[in-house]
Each structure stands twice: as structure tokens, then as C-alpha cells.
Amino acid sequence: xxxxxxxxxxxxxxxxxxxxxxxxxxxxxxxxxxxxxxxxxxxxxxxxxxxxxxxxxxxxxxxxxxxxxxxxxxxxxxxxxxxxxxxxxxxxxxxxxxxxxxxxxxxxxxxxxxxxxxxxxxxxxxxxxxxxxxxxxxxxxxxxxxxxxxxxxxxxxxxxxxxxxxxxxxxxxxxxxxxxxxxxxxxxxxxxxxxxxxxxxxxxxxxxxxxxxxxxxxxxxxxxxxxxxxxxxxxxxxxxxxxxxxxxxxxxxxxxxxxxxxxxxxxxxxxxxxxxxxxxxxxxxxxxxxxxxxxxxxxxxxxxxxxxxxxxxxxxxxxxxxxxxxxxxxxxxxxxxxxxxxxxxxxxxxxxxxxxxxxxxxxxxxxxxxxxxxxxxxxxxxxxxxxxxxxxxxxxxxxxxxxxxxxxxxxxxxxxxxxxxxxxxxxxxxxxxxxxxxxxxxxxxxxxxxxxxxxxxxxxxxxxxxxxxxxxxxxxxxxxxxxxxxxxxxxxxxxxxxxxxxxxxxxxxxxxxxxxxxxxxxxxxxxxxxxxxxxxxxxxxxxxxxxxxxxxxxxxxxx
Length: 559
Description:
The chain is of the alpha+beta class.
């Protein structure tokens, strides 16, 4: 660990063309987090151990995206049993939550951005409970050991990243919030710059408490009290979270959603995430087309992918929510016959326009579409350990720096603004309406793919709000149909269609297609900078290769 503090980038990087890692690998959003995970793998730790160590470091070095004040979804593959399971660490609404909690005095939904800062938007954090649950089943190293890299970095300091400094400079309203301003201020009162060394002794103390006392030390006692005090007494928009809300939180182990795509088996996250179902639907909807037709950066490839995405997002908006509160027709949404019928709606020559949700089998209730506006304060990691165990984990505080408040050195999430602000539309219940104890809808889609030999092939996931679905699905099409390696796949320009305008990431190859896409009936928009953060590991002959999205600051490292 000493070299972590002495050198900024002393990592076992695997550049393009390098020999694969033979034993283990981690791809994560920050070099320090990746190095912490790699250190655990080198000591014989499991992929879950590495994920915990990496998450603690991300809490410190990438607070704008994830942390122990937020939530996460983790997929785990165990080669001993041949099974995939998942762990749900999604935040829950406190008992004070009401269907109209984000409406104004006139009963109208408030502007989404206005509802984010302050205590009202904070959900009961789930990451720590989820990580402890996964560690009890799959951990190899001592729980306390997994906190050592993050504690040392918090006490000794770490260099502020370009990404964090840029986001602070670009969002003066967030930077002006009292907790953010206090923590990220230089001695002269100006905001930290990239390369400045930042320490967080409060977070180090929090880590020490959790390392010693487990998740209980987070959900009860001084840390829990600090969270409640902040939610109640923050500078704006107080919330109603209580100590009982924290003490009652439970992470959940769930069966994943899985399907067969061509010769591959794919597994992803089940509800309350919509991401897994939607990713699998997109793949199944394009399955009847040939792989050459789906080639990236081609007219057919963009068009067919966009049409499938429209159909998946239409179903997502109507049916998916917390399965403890709504009857999500998971089996029906992934029914092969249903998806074949839906795929026939794709016209190879023209845009269908806004897609309507289908009526999948096993549907037991009718729900109105939500008005959810997820944001981009999220991160992802993919990990393989010496025993071949695999972790694909997506983790989040929701918006950039979450609720823009801190407690005990960590950012508190604003996950409750992932609920639909309107609970009833056209006389129908919205599946994602707020309710006490409910988990808000997510788009996170940690995914694991198995080859035709039944062995692990790919672990992938991304941040990006609802665009996560298209980021992950597009990467899988590029790798499974196009044969691209991880580095080329994650660097591809993105194509997004969330059942609205066709959004293309600025790139000469895609820009050249705009006139022909417009002729097909699309409303086309181009964006200069997409916010993906894909992290991929692929099994290849001799070991593993990995890649980190060039749009962020991650790395893939291994031995």
C-alpha cells in the first residue's frame, strides 16, 4: 500500500496488444480504487473483497459518483456452483415519504433539479448493508482489512482528479452548498483544483468504525445519528428520515434476470432496476437481424438498435418498479414469443415514432408511465478473481454529489428523486410512485455474459442514468455481434433512443448518417460529451483482457 501513497499511477496497466492477465483483474473508475481492489486480489481475496475495497476508495476519490452514502447493485458469478446471484443495495424511502412529496403547493410536480439538494431527497443508504451481505457469502479476507487502503488515503490525502475539479467548477450552485464548499475549499477559499491533495479525516474515522463494527456501526449509533441530523437540519429542504428507518434497512439477495442471445447466456439485474430487463429486451428484439446488419456506425446498425431501444423503454416506463410494491411482469417482459411479436414492429426502412408499451403475458396490473428523470452520479466496476468468481457492480449517489450534503465525511444520496413525482396519471397508479420503505426505479444494468461453452465471457456495466441501458446494450452488440475487443467497444460513439429523439454522440461516422436518419423520420440530436463510464472484462485464451471508458478516468489492471 505504501506505493499507493508514493506514486500517483503505479499500476499494472494492460495496454492494447499486451498479454492478458492470467489470474485476476479489476476495471474501475479511478486508478486508486482499481489498485485497492487489485491489492486484495493479490492477497487471495475474492472478487467481492476487491469490490468492497474499491468502493471504499471510490467513496473518497470519486464522491461525485458513488459512496457509502448511496446504493448499489451487484451481480456475482460463482464457478463452483455455476450460478449467478445478485445483491440489491438500493436505497429505500423513509417512513415519512408520501406520494406527493415532490409536488408544489398547487399540486404540480416541482422542477426536478430544485428537488435534489437537501434532506427531502435522501434515501436510506444501502451500499454498506449490501456489501456486508455479499461478503458474508463470498468474502475471503477479513472485513476490516478491506478498509485499509481507503483509510490510509483518507488520512494521508489523495490528488483531486480532473473530473471532480471540472464538475465543481462547472456547477457553482452545487459548489456553493455549505458542506461542499467547506470540504472542497482551499485555504484561500477558492475551490480545489486538479492535483491538489485533499484529506478527509472524518471519513477515515467513519471507515474505522465500520471496519470494526460492521454494517451495524453504520445503521445505528453515531453515524446513523449524524445522517438523521443532517437530513433534518440541512441548509434547505429538510427530510423526515429517522433512526428507525436506518436500523430497519435490509439489503436483499435476488435472482437475476437472464436470457439467451444467439449462442450466449446473459444475466443482469432484476427489479427494482429496469436496466437488466431493458438490456435483455434490446438484445432479443434485434436477434432476428443478422450480425452484419447490426454493425456499429452504420445506417442499419443505428436504426435497428434505436428501434429496439424505443420498444424496451416503452415497456420499462409502464411496468417496472419495486417488486415489493408492484406486480412487475418480469417473466412476461422477457417471454421469447412476446419479444418476437414486438420485434415485428421494427420496420427496416423507417422510424416507428414513439413506441407504445406492449401487453406481456403474466401482466396483473396496469400502470401509467412514470416521469422519472434519473441523473448521472454513478460508477461501475467489473472484477474477476483467482478462482474465476466474477463481480459486476454498479454503484451510485444519483446526482452529481448526491443531495449536496455530507455526514461524517461522505456524500448523502438524493435517490428519492428517482421516484416519479406524480403518483397517479390518467386515473392509473404510477409504478414508481413514492411510498414508505419503497425502492425507487433504477436503470443500472450490471451484466455478466457466458459463452457457448457455458463459461464466463464478459462482465460489463456503466453509469449514465437511463442511458445506461443503451450504453450496456450497445457495447454488448459491438462485442457479441461485431467481435470488438473491450477497448474498441467502450470507445465507440454512443447511440441512444429512450423512446424520444435519436441522440448521437458527436463523431464523424455518426454525423455522416444524420441526413439519411432524418429521411427515415428521426428527430436527431447530437451531443458532444456522453457520460458513460463503461468498465469491461473479457475472458480470452490465456486469461482476461479489460478496458475502461476513455470518457472517464478509470483503468483496467491485473496480473
